[in-house]
Each structure stands twice: as C-alpha cells, then as structure tokens.
Amino acid sequence: MITVTPCMRFSKTYVSGAIVIDPILREDDRGHFCRTWCAQEFRENGIDFSPVQSNTGFNIRRGTVRGMHLQLAPALEAKLIMCSQGSLFDVVLDMRPDSASYLKWSYVELTSSNRRMLYIPEGCAHGYQTLEDNTAIMYLSSQYYAPSAARGVRFDDPSFGIQWPLTATAISEQDRHWPLMKEEGGLPW
C-alpha cells in the first residue's frame, strides 16, 4: 500500500458528519500548491466520498443568499464546498431525523485566500451567503442533480435560527418560498 502524506487537516462541526477541511499549503517563491481532495485521506478521516459531478456558481452582490438545498433518496448527495473567489458564510443544516444533531446548523467562512472547505454529508441542507461582491463557489457532489429529488427549506425559518451575518440582498423566488417547518408540522416533504 502506498502511504499518502497528509495534506489536509480535518475538524468536526456541530453537525454530525459535517467536516471543515483545511488544505496544507506547500509554498515557495513561485506561489503555492495544495490538495483539495484525496480519496485515501478522506477515508482515513471517516469520510466516504466519491464525487461524480462538479459545479460552480458566481454571485455578483454581497449579501446574496442561496439555499437551503438538499436532495432526498434515492438521490441523496454529499458535497465538498470551496470558495474560488471572494468570501462566503457557508451553512450546513442537519435534516436527518435519526441524527444526534437533527435540525442543528453549523457554519464556516470560506474564502479564496483561506482555501478552507466544508464537507456536507448526505441528508443535510446546504446554503451560503456572499460576504463580498463577485464571489464564486465550486463544489463536488457525490450524486447527479435530480430535479425530482431536489428539496429545500427556508433560509430564514425561525425553527432553525440560522444567524446570517448580513441582510439578504438577493435571493431566488424558489428559495424565498420554501415552506416553513411550523406550517408543515415538521419536514416539508
């Protein structure tokens, strides 16, 4: 077996299975290099993640909110989120009724300069708010996008109490109108 030199630090969050990943930069007079995904290193840190799709998004305005999104079975997806330009407040919300951290949320500030990443486990909703203009996000997904399995919950649902750092300046009609937990008497699906 080949031994892989650790190139990332893995830290737990308040949400069971959600992990903050800090790449270890290899720097010299040319700049830097860092690893952003390694199947062996992820497995050694308890993450079974096999990406099948890569996505990017660009946000013009500071304060833009996207989320909270997830996919239901049979298209459950895990995600590895990173910020390639600008900065964002990235949130994971546990929507798994059998989880010890059910309905709890955690956040991490992802920036193009800190190169930090957030691993979102299956069954958790994901969303973010841009902290500056012209912010870009990139993420790997363990499942193909399946419109029939796509769901969401309101970013401002008081049942979760997510404390967004800024007033939302832009949000889609879809994200603005996901049902509230209280209206549905529980999960809205």
Describe this structure in words.
This protein has 189 residues and is mostly beta strands. 7% of the residues lie in helices and 39% in strands. It is globular and about 55 Å long. The N and C termini lie far apart (45 Å).
List keywords for this structure.
single chain, 189 residues, mainly beta, Jelly Rolls, six-stranded antiparallel beta sheet, five-stranded antiparallel beta sheet, 3 helices, 13 strands, 39% strand, globular
Quick overview:
This protein has helices at 39-44, 173-176, 181-184; strands at residues 8-12, 19-23, 26-28, 31-33, 53-59, 65-71, 79-85, 87-94, 105-111, 117-120, 124-130, 135-141, 150-152.
Largest sheet: 6 strands, antiparallel
Strand sequence of the main sheet, in spatial order? Answer: 1-2-10-7-12-5
Percentage of residues in strands: 35-45%
The helicity comes to under 10%
Number of beta-strand segments: 13
Figure out the total of helices: 3
The CATH superfamily bears the name Jelly Rolls
Q: Give the distance, in angstroms, between the N- and C-terminal Cα atoms.
A: 45 Å
- Helix and strand string, N-terminal first? EEEEHEEEEEEEEEHH
Return the CATH architecture: Sandwich
Overall structural domain count? 1
CATH class: Mainly Beta
- List unreliable stretches of 5+ residues: none
Mean pLDDT: 94
Q: Give me the CATH fold name.
A: Jelly Rolls
The structure class reads mainly beta
Radius of gyration: 17 Å
User: What is the 3D shape?
Assistant: globular
